[in-house]
């Protein structure tokens, strides 16, 4: 991705402006693991080979910087898993909202989280389904395989709920909640919140959202089937963590999916179930590719992973302890978890410091590379 921005960035900036959050992501990606961020010089104590190691940008939109963040996040989640099956649901917004998202992305994302979390909380509290407090996590994704805008939230929901009597209630019908009923309630909650923002909120001052445009948008949203997709329940904690890791720290496109750069475009690999290998390669003009990538840069400070119910920050410790008591499950063992994490870090460090040339010596830091001024586009769009 950094090579795409370096190669075609000037052509894009000649006809486009950047929002401040896009400019920050752009600067970070271009500078990641280069001399601009500084680093250190390492030398093998056996063969004398020298290696230059540069710092990472750690930006959440950088394809190079998500593995370590994902592993650290998953390590923390190990303490919170319950010994029950987990369900994966996906709440998707209709594409008719894409124009509104272009002007009010933070607002629409917040409404999505509020509507999806309220829907799941309400269904879990209903005695017809569970009758208690559930535990679930929502993760925002905003893209399709071709980097088009496709706003949806992945929900990982524990299979059951904790009642006010301190009992754990499991799903009664072999599934968590009926998806058609979820879809209707989700749409109703989102539309009500959107209308409230139109009456007294940021949408009231949106000059593009005239009365005729608003009526046309609401008619289209009411005609559209709002999709809530439910996947098969997941197994034990190890399967849950492996599955969850695919979604939490994913960026719009990974470097592995960028097949190559051409004179005027970018070739990337996308999923295609109709093909024998389930993949195909498409080509996008470079400026269009960059524009689509920047669609998915989140507003500054926006939290794309959120926890609810028993996992909510205000009641996590007490709620999870009560759920484990109801399930007769032992509490997590922090010492074991921490020692395992330390072991993995130590093994990774040993492998990293082993000389890749002679495979016998160790690489030792001999000098520090100071960061250099970052030459990258400044924001030119509205704040």
Protein architecture, described:
This protein is α+β, with helices and mostly antiparallel strands and 383 residues long. The protein has a domain at 82-252 and 295-331. The protein contains eleven helices and 13 strands. The protein has helices spanning 2-13, 20-31, 66-77, 98-103, 105-125, 179-199, 211-223, 237-244, 286-294, 316-327, 334-353; strands at residues 39-44, 50-54, 86-92, 135-143, 149-158, 161-162, 168-169, 228-230, 258-261, 265-271, 279-285, 305-309, 363-369. Strands 8-3-5-4-12 form a five-stranded antiparallel β-sheet, covered by helices on one side. Strands 2-1-13 form a three-stranded antiparallel β-sheet, with no helix packed on it. A three-stranded antiparallel β-sheet has the order 9-10-11. Strand 6 (161-162) and strand 7 form a beta hairpin. Helix 1 (2-13) crosses helix 2. It is globular. The two termini are 24 Å apart. The model has no long low-confidence stretch (mean pLDDT 89).
What's the SSE blueprint?
Elements: H1 2-13, H2 20-31, E1 39-44, E2 50-54, H3 66-77, E3 86-92, H4 98-103, H5 105-125, E4 135-143, E5 149-158, E6 161-162, E7 168-169, H6 179-199, H7 211-223, E8 228-230, H8 237-244, E9 258-261, E10 265-271, E11 279-285, H9 286-294, E12 305-309, H10 316-327, H11 334-353, E13 363-369
Antiparallel strand pairs: 1-2, 1-13, 3-5, 3-8, 4-5, 4-12, 6-7, 9-10, 10-11
């Amino acid at each position: 991705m950094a090579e795409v921005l370096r190669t075609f960035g000037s052509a894009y900036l000649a006809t486009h402006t950047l929002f401040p959050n896009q400019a920050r992501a752009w600067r970070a990606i271009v500078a990641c693991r280069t001399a601009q961020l500084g680093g250190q010089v390492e030398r093998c104590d056996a063969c004398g080979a020298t290696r230059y190691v540069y710092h990472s940008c750690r930006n959440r939109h950088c394809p190079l910087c998500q593995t370590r963040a994902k592993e650290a996040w998953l390590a923390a989640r190990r303490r919170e898993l319950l010994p029950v099956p987990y369900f994966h649901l996906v709440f998707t917004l209709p594409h008719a909202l894409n124009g509104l998202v272009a002007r009010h992305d933070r607002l629409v994302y917040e409404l999505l989280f509020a509507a999806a979390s309220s829907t799941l909380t309400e269904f879990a509290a209903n005695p017809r389904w569970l009758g208690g407090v559930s535990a679930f996590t929502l993760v925002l994704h905003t893209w399709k395989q071709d980097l088009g805008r496709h706003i949806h939230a992945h929900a990982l929901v524990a299979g059951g709920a904790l009642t006010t009597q301190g009992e754990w209630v499991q799903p009664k019908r072999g599934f968590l909640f009926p998806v058609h009923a979820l879809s209707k309630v989700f749409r109703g909650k989102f539309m009500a919140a959107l209308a409230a923002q139109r009456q007294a909120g940021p949408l009231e001052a949106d000059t593009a959202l005239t009365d005729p445009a608003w009526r046309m948008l609401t008619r289209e949203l009411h005609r559209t089937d709002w999709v809530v997709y439910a996947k098969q329940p997941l197994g034990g904690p190890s399967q849950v963590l492996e599955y969850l890791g695919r979604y939490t720290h994913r960026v719009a496109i990974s470097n592995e999916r960028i097949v190559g750069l051409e004179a005027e475009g970018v070739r990337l690999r996308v999923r295609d179930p109709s093909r024998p290998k389930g993949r195909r390669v498409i080509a996008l003009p470079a400026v269009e590719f960059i524009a689509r990538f920047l669609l998915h840069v989140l507003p500054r400070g926006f939290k794309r992973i959120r926890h609810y119910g028993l996992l909510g920050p205000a009641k996590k410790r007490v709620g999870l302890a009560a759920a484990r008591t109801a399930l007769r499950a032992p509490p997590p063992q922090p010492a074991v978890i921490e020692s395992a994490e330390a072991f993995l870090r130590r093994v990774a460090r040993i492998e990293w410091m082993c000389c890749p040339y002679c495979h016998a010596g160790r690489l030792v830091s001999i000098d520090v590379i100071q960061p250099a001024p970052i030459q990258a586009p400044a924001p030119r769009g509205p704040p």
